[in-house]
Amino acid sequence: MTPRPVTLGDLPIRDDLRGRSPYGAPQIDVPVRLNTNENPYPPSPALVADLAGAVGRDAASLNRYPDRDALALRGDLAAYLGHGLAVDQVWAANGSNEVLQQILQAFGGHGRSALGFEPSYSMHPIITTGVSTRWIPGSREEDFGVDPGKAVAAIEEHRPDIVFLTSPNNPTGTALPLGVIEGLVQAAPGMVVVDEAYFEFARTGTPSALSLLPGNPRLIVTRTMSKAFAMAGTRVGYLAADPAVVEALLLVRLPYHLSTLTQMAARVALAHRAELLGTVDRLRAERDDCVAWLRGRGLTVADSDANFVMFGRFADRRAVWEALLARGVLIREVGPPEWLRVSIGTTGEMAAFREAMTDALAASPVITTPGGSGRDDLEGIL
Ligand SMILES: *Cc1c(COP(=O)(O)O)cnc(C)c1O
């Protein structure tokens, strides 16, 4: 007799995980993929050749564990970040998602809480609850900024152990003024994580929260090589903070978490950073053109300091998303319910997006009245 198929509900899974959905940006194979904020430019033949050579060299020692503390990579990352940072102030892991998870493991946990201002990156609450930490959803304003007075009030009311600030924010693209971040670092009783995954795409002159690190040992700034560095497949994220924060993370990280090959690929990419970051200027120009084009079509578009643009508002965003997909263009249904997000692609990909959008707009009514990003709209999006 064949046994009855087992479902999740049959297993003794943790009560707080019952009924939850996993992170799930669709991975659909279409010609124009503009849905996960990747850099559309693949590595150059020169970089590919350097990577292949380095794999050849490192392969001969794969019987050994990697450098457990990834010191050479962390040194390279510190040099890239500047701000006088030393190797003991920088930490790296498999994507900034793993960095965030380690932060939660060290500073969150059972009986503790984390606060973020939504709409924001959906992985923040998923990672938070994944380590049995309570998630407190704070809110953003109509323009997706964070009101300092209300944010301080929320911090004082809830006394969270961790505060998440995403700047530039995903999915809205909006950056936070440094003064707002500084005020919240002062107000927070625990750790403050500024997720700067998109920092390199910010408009010229936008300051990094890295400049606030001196004298603020409870501040952590996270970055990633997945976006500007065009290395999403490598899985390397990192942070800068006080050396004591790095000591805390050593208590929870798995030994040898960053493979020899990962450390090597990240270092080779950093050595080629002029080339990789060279695509950032092109993407920023393409982004600004995209914002202007969408506004020219009568759409509402959030200011963007990232490599994506959130736009709306649509009575039926699903219909627009599907119309684009039918034309081979995959964007993301994320954020408040009347909005969509498009990642910035190559010039050709953006032309395909505009062409598909022109068709989609002909069939879909656009809402032009103000409002629509209030709390009620955000139910159920994260
Ligand atoms: C893409 C993204 C990350 C990065 O994730 P990785 O794990 O480094 O690939 C982190 N934070 C935000 C807000 C993001 O959008």
UniProtKB/TrEMBL annotation:
The keyword Translocase does not apply. InterPro entries: Aminotrans_II_pyridoxalP_BS, Aminotransferase_I/II_large, HisP_aminotrans, PyrdxlP-dep_Trfase, PyrdxlP-dep_Trfase_major, PyrdxlP-dep_Trfase_small. Pfam families: Aminotran_1_2 (PF00155). Residues 1-26 are annotated as: Disordered. It catalyses: L-histidinol phosphate + 2-oxoglutarate = 3-(imidazol-4-yl)-2-oxopropyl phosphate + L-glutamate. Homodimer. This is Histidinol-phosphate aminotransferase. It comes from Sphaerisporangium corydalis.
